[in-house]
Known about the structure:
Strand content: 15-25%
Helix content: 25-40%
Mean pLDDT: 84
Distance between the termini: 37 Å
Radius of gyration: 22 Å
Structural class: alpha/beta
Shape: globular
Low-confidence stretches: 1-36
Strand order of the largest sheet: 5-4-3-6-11-16-15
Amino acid sequence: MAYRRSLFPSFLSSLFLSTKVSPYVTQLPFRASASFSTRFVGDEPILVRDFIHAALYDPQHGYFSQRPGSVGVLEQSIKFGQLDGRRAYLQLLDKIYKQSDVSWFTPVELFKPWYAHGIAEAILRTANLSIPLKIYEIGGGSGTCAKGIMDYLKLNAPSRVYDNMSYISVEISPSLAEKQTATVGEVESHLSRFRVEHRDAADRSGWGEAEQQPCWVIMLEVLDNLPHDLIYSSNQFSPWMEVWVEKHRERSELSELYKPLQDPLITSCIEILDLENASGGSIAKRMWAKLFPRSRRCWLPTGCLKILEVLHGALPKMSLIASDFSYLPDVKVPGERAPLVSMKRDGKSYDYENYLDTKGDADIFFPTDFWLLERMDHYCSGWLKPHEDKSSKKGKKRRTLMLDTSAFMEEFGLPTKTRTRDGYNPLLDDFKNTKIYISVPTHNTK
Length: 446
């Protein structure tokens, strides 16, 4: 699945280290007209999540479809120990981007093989190795993660673990599916243990009957590109409304349309967040809201909720590892948990103020609310039910852990491998706004 977070080198320092605007990031002027985006909307209005899905994945005009080579592959691993420090690393990164002529590299690619090795070690320490190890990866990119994990298991796990393992990549992009097979196939023994299933992981029908065997699911930089919905309220006391996107019949423009809540995914997200009861607050806050009413906009990770529902239904005994960005600086699109909408042109990044202006030329990626991710995970596992009497709850069905990327890699990885001569470590020092979420099943259900 081509759900990937893009890393543009021209604003790495802004994204990871500062809240100031990078001098290389230019704000695109706001346009009232979104004429180029109307190709994604027909005569009938569509939900915001459907608009975002089309803007990213439309077979002809979507961002990822127009850029089949956007996932960069390093010819060789970066030798961090030969770099003097941060400046040398950023200069090398800028040179790599200019030479490769690709849109972005993923962290697992920039820090190969060490990033994947950390994931593999976490699995080794946690998995029940008395049964065959089975791993699914959603959105495997170029196959670097799969190869890195299988390399590590081949060298470090008991031979029976590697010999009996299976690794399945679920990939929506046909070009990436071919690339993954070629990458993993660099080690001939991996091929008999690896396969790619070209399909949408969020489509329940593709998984077949529920699989009762314990397994692992890996999603690296997947959640940020999953479609989101948007809800709107004219003030702090008005009810939430669904946001739809419609096309004006008389002119080629898009606008928002507000409808009463009715979509099941949206209403489920609102229940999990308990948004209907969150607008009360103290007496002072209520008085302030009446004196100074303001509209509210909230982005909901309905795409994440959907894929979690599918995974828990198809793989009820899965263990999950997901990594993503917990915060994105300088987002111009309004609303809580709003996305960064950015395009790349002539080696520079440009940001949009209005998500409706995208026309398949921009990446749309969201910060991950890890607290909400945990609640949705528990909800989809069948443990957490909104408005349920807490005293009657059974034990949790999942044990979860959220770690900063640096903490995860210090525990499971080899941090010395990504350290420069002066002690600077981009994997630990730069990715301050990224987290890794681990969720495993538990038998504590009484």
